[in-house]
């Protein structure tokens, strides 16, 4: 066992972290996390943090559940790895596929396993185009995504997402188009949230008309945009999108990588918003993050062609349906079902946290507080009540607040100048009280810091 400083030194010398300014990281040193239990995590110096981000939007059942370690251990001793290519499978992959067909919304009865959410979305990219080719409409190639959407870091996933920085650094894949997200706080102008919800949904209709329905293959969207800033759509948004998808011949891809497995108050964001996805990428909460695994749920409609006479689908990953990851996911889903994790989070933790969270709107630094299920955001603003004033440059105050929060023992994330929360679904009332105290202190400390 090395000292904290030793770990920081070797880490800084050799480890390039995701989504990180390497130079800034080297100047600051990382926190070295060693242990987790429930909603808590500890660093090498024994500091304890409330994990308000559930790992990275994934640890639904909390950290440190022995049952998952035991299930993975058993699987590792039995069959640590075998592939699922061609005509082989193994018990855990088959069992997990059946459980997922049961749990996910009606009509999604097939799964293509991947190692991550990004791989799931690159799979979507291929499947969508393959579907239309097999359906005899090969011109339908364009995928419509949204600004601030996040579908992963692999090339096609990043292109379908709407993160400008990723497009600038990697270049764009042809055949992808982006529309305005249902982000009333930033883009709503003088419209009411409901008016804006309709307007933003009709962006899809306008895009289809402009690009030509015969060229548009699919619309991809998260039920609530997570990494884009927890953009909870106005109530009018999804019904209007549903209407457009019903009238137009395009596939609906609902990215449930964050919203899936209980985050929004139901098993899936699609349940919360009444959506019928043609394709549904999943990851994160599928295994509560205990081991990497993702997948694409595929509807009967799409399978009608995929399982047709079209021949081989040239796509897959060594770790598609990895036995140990499948064992972790099965154990996680068993715990979630037996302990009614989703139902209890929706009826107990979510309303309790929401009441406290929405009250932060009264803080002088908060321009808007929003939350659905157990995912929320606080928009930090320099002046109230105007929604239009923003800190400049965008993002600095969010980062300051996030760092202050970490020092106050609460992990939150900053997206631009919004603070984000997405705690484990098993968080208790006492832990929510503690979380709220730490949020309040973070807001007060940040406010004081800005006045210096
Ligand atoms: N889709 C969404 C909605 C996500 O939030 C993420 C990751 O945060 C991904 C896809 C990519 O998942 P992964 O990081 O497992 O590749």
Question: What does this protein look like?
Answer:
By secondary structure, this protein is α+β, with helices and mostly antiparallel strands. The protein folds into 2 domains: 143 residues, Aspartate Aminotransferase, domain 1, CATH 3.90.1150; 272 residues, 3-Layer(aba) Sandwich (Aspartate Aminotransferase, domain 2), CATH 3.40.640.10. It contains 17 helices and 14 strands. A 4-stranded parallel sheet has the order 6-5-7-8, with helices on both faces. It has a 4-stranded antiparallel sheet with strand order 11-12-14-13, with helices on one face. It has a 3-stranded antiparallel sheet with strand order 1-2-3. β1 and β2 form a beta hairpin. The chain starts with a helix and ends with a helix. It binds pyridoxal-5'-phosphate. Keywords: Aminotransferase, Pyridoxal phosphate, Transferase. One of its GO terms (molecular function) is transaminase activity. Its cofactor is pyridoxal 5'-phosphate.
